[in-house]
Amino acid sequence: MCDLDHHGKAFGFLVDVPEIRALIEDTQRVTERLSDNAARAAALKPTFARLLAADDWLPDEFARPDHTSRMGGGIGQYALYRAEDGSLCLFSLVVPAGASTPVHDHLAWGLVGIYRGAQLDTTYARLDDGRDPDRATLQVSSEQTVQKGGFYALLPPDGDIHYVKTVSDTPSVSIHLLANDTACVWRHTFDPGAGTVTPFRSGYSNVKCKDEEGR
User: Fold this and answer.
1) Under a CB-based contact definition with an 8 Å cutoff, are residues 192 and 135 in contact?
2) By CB atoms within 10 Å of each CB, which of 8, 13, 15, 184 scores lowest?
3) Is 185 in contact with 107 (CB distance < 8 Å)?
4) Which of 169, 32, 24 lies closest to 83 in space, CA to CA?
5) Where are the domains of the chain?
6) What is the pLDDT of residues 81-134, one digit of tens each?
7) What pLDDT is stored for residue 210 in this prediction?
8) In the CATH hierarchy, which fold is given to the domain comprising 12-205?
9) How many CA atoms lie within 13 A of 6 on its CB side?
């Protein structure tokens, strides 16, 4: 059952269903037991797949576009679980039909999967050494169309820079498990054509970051 008392709650289970609890508990166990991020992601695949396959656990309010978000394009980013120490988060990302995210990074390992709709994922390789914080030389390294139930791992530094575009007729909803508080950490957007890098914090659509509380 969903946690119907999540309004005003910023941490812990903002949506409380058995599949999310199982994933978070498995992630905590795997993180303690394994030190290699690729091994952690591989170990979590069965539990993550079960979350994506389960029906009707995501409330409608966490599956709709947000036309006031910092991501632009009507993209909504909704926290489903957040560790108060910033070590882990689970969120839904809603991208309207035909819309794309900016090219961005995550700065954490994790898993990304499709719960509804379909997305084209375009990943970039960084060719420069990263010494200039304002510049980056990027090259497309892979493209894949991810359908409902499909997912992939994020393992920085390789493969951490990408953008997604909804290629279904309805908004896509993807579920992200990441080893940071993704929407509240300062990360980066990239303009591959211009070669520029811009500091970026996306924010969540449903809760505030710690330093924004009380505003």
Assistant:
1) no
2) 8
3) yes
4) 24
5) 12-205
6) 999 999 999 999 999 999 999 999 999 999 999 999 999 999 999 999 999 999
7) 85
8) Jelly Rolls (2.60.120)
9) 23
